[in-house]
């Protein structure tokens, strides 16, 4: 989750770390602002009990320029299968050639590779929400990429710098899985914030083409063109915009760009203590609800870019599902307008609803 506002010069390597003292100070102040929030969803944005005590001295900077060794000891890959309330978790072991065959991986299921963003980690709200949604559906193998040690608070410049190293090592892991029998044509890379750009960067380190990337409000601050997600990174690149122009990228990014409530600010976040951060993170919730077609939202065409506001233009093509079931052949900008918070299949922190208010719909 991006909690650093405003574009600044991107530092490079350890020298860049020394040059980013002011940036780290801004980020630390933002972390302090997050503390003391109320409500289940906002409490989840604390991103760990120790976040407020972190300093710029805790930031990790990889060398970059493809000079780092893979596998990286601070980047972890796990497979999650089975019961969403008590899933089986297995560490991907690339030293064992038959690891995939001997794991709990189900060949008949589709595959999701999820990459969190800034401040994320193994148990952050974005990962837990999406993992629960896919496993509850019962027809997905979920691979999680945990690079939290390279993207921790208050180290946003370091996290941006480390994206390419994470992508390079993850590309090797994905190549290992593909060589072990993982069907690329049934595999989607899902990334939130900085994780969306990591999904795109992975394409630079593969000898094959990824089938699909679902980008959840790709991060805007400090993202230069060479690191930015684009339609060339997969056969289909689908983007959900919920905070465009602030924490999220503006304009067209993929083959399909979904403008949710105008793509800039979510109406149910307007009274939140951090409305932009609330809007930025809700992209995860929209994808979670889309895993089942019974709760997926329908999007209608709305021209070349997100309008200012929730208005829609005249129909240019047929409506489509937004999210997991978006057709691979779809192209263009599509709009969704709603005033209700997105439904979340598992983690109630995402919607801020109490247990008594939450009713699970039937799976499609």
From TrEMBL:
GO terms for cellular component: extracellular space. Belongs to the AB hydrolase superfamily. Lipase family. It is found in: Secreted. It comes from the Eukaryota. Keywords: Secreted. InterPro entries: AB_hydrolase_fold, Lipase, TAG_lipase. Pfam families: Lipase. GO terms for molecular function: lipase activity; serine hydrolase activity. It comes from Gryllus longicercus. This is Lipase domain-containing protein. Residues 95-302 form the Lipase domain. GO terms for biological process: lipid catabolic process.
């Amino acid at each position: 989750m991006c909690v650093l506002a405003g574009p600044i010069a991107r530092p490079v390597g350890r020298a860049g770390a020394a040059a980013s003292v002011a940036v780290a100070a801004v980020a630390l102040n933002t972390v302090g602002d997050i503390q003391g929030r109320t409500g289940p969803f906002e409490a989840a944005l604390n991103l760990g009990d120790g976040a407020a005590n972190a300093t710029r001295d805790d930031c990790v900077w990889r060398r970059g320029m493809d000079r780092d060794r893979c596998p990286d000891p601070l980047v972890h890959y796990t497979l999650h299968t089975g019961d969403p309330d008590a899933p089986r978790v297995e560490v991907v072991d690339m030293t064992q050639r038959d690891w995939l065959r001997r794991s709990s991986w189900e060949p008949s299921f589709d595959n999701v590779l999820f990459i969190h963003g800034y401040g994320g980690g193994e148990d952050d709200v974005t990962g837990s929400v999406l993992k629960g949604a896919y496993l509850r559906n019962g027809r997905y193998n979920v691979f999680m990429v945990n690079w939290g040690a390279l993207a921790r608070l208050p180290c946003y410049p370091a996290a941006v710098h480390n994206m390419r190293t994470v992508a390079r090592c993850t590309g090797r892991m994905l190549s290992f899985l593909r060589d072990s029998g993982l069907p690329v044509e049934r595999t989607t890379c899902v990334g939130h914030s900085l994780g969306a750009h990591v999904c795109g960067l992975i394409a630079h380190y593969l000898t094959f083409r990824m089938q699909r990337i679902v980008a959840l409000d790709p991060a805007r601050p400090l993202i230069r063109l060479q690191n930015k997600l684009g339609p060339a990174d997969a056969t289909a690149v689908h983007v959900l915009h919920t905070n465009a122009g602030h924490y999220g990228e503006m304009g067209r990014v993929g083959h399909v760009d979904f403008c949710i409530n105008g793509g800039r600010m979510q109406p149910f976040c307007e009274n939140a203590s951090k409305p932009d951060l609330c809007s930025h993170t809700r992209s995860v919730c929209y994808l979670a609800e889309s895993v089942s077609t019974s709760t997926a939202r329908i999007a209608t065409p709305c021209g070349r870019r997100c309008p200012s506001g929730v208005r829609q233009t005249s129909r240019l093509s047929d409506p489509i599902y937004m999210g997991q079931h978006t057709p691979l052949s779809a192209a263009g900008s599509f709009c969704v307008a709603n005033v209700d918070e997105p439904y979340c299949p598992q983690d109630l922190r995402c919607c801020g609803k109490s247990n008594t208010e939450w009713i699970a719909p039937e799976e499609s």
